[in-house]
């Protein structure tokens, strides 16, 4: 597990920084507008959203190593050619590279479900969520710093090299994606989608979408609120406080004996985001960010754990890919929607809309998870015969 988390962190930091690297190349290297850079970032994000379940389904059928090696080759070609591509070709190629992005987080989440005992799984998913927070804290700032010291084209090559190295490292490790007692899909037949994509799985996907609408909107609103107060230079500190609080909250949550339902976690995250609307200076915004950040990593880890429990072994890749798509879609749509709310009112409105988005996702997830689930013909890993919806997924089946 330690080598897998270490190698996947390399890939994840680079993947997190890919849009920043492309933005800097287009603005500084090509001398074009931020709108043009936003078009490339949107194309890449759309590719990620579409490619998640497609790559996951391929992993279910062919295994992780062939898919990883194919995606590594595609990434190597794209990033090597970035400095010589004109904008029009770069725009189309960005969608393709998002479609074929190295599925490091996807494989890591599947491997966690296969390599850990039930008692260890929640803590392992917390570490994976903490890894995500570290990626956001390290990747983009590192790329910006490197771009100030060298050319944007060289930075793009560096990001591509890190993505290729991380993906190749995961392929070399080739971690198991199912436990010894789980049948191979080729032997047992692939489960039909309607057997596992029911109301409980839809509830988790809706909550994943709502969580990243909230998180993406919060980042944007922090910048907008501090710009309105004439303190925009403190935005990096506030975002860093949020990230550190999230890491701390995740590590603490991984040690608690009894998990909270996912719908409750995201609902609390939404409510904890609302007080930030009252903060009008960076010290108070740091306090508000610390309070809300404590719940971010626990929420994301609970979503990942829920997907691993609800999906059968033969469809876990596709289900994890759908989770990744929901997360990407939330980030892509959250910023423009909450940005429009900020433009129509005051910056603090962004925190209100982001928080209410989290509360709405929590209520939707709770209502969907209360619907009875059909008894599947498969059992979750390490827990044969038990219904696949555990307390951390929705909690409704246990009355919480």
Automatic annotation (TrEMBL):
Single Gene Ontology MF annotation: transmembrane transporter activity
Organism: Actinomadura harenae
Keyword Membrane included in the entry's annotation: yes
Region (Disordered) residue spans: 378-400
UniProt keyword terms in alphabetical order: Membrane, Transmembrane, Transmembrane helix
Record protein name field: MFS transporter
Keyword DNA repair: no
Membrane spanning stretches: 32-55, 154-173, 202-226, 232-253, 260-278, 284-307, 319-342, 348-368
Gene3D superfamilies per the UniProt record, alphabetical: MFS general substrate transporter like domains
InterPro entries membership: MFS (IPR011701), MFS_trans_sf (IPR036259)
Source species, domain of life: Bacteria
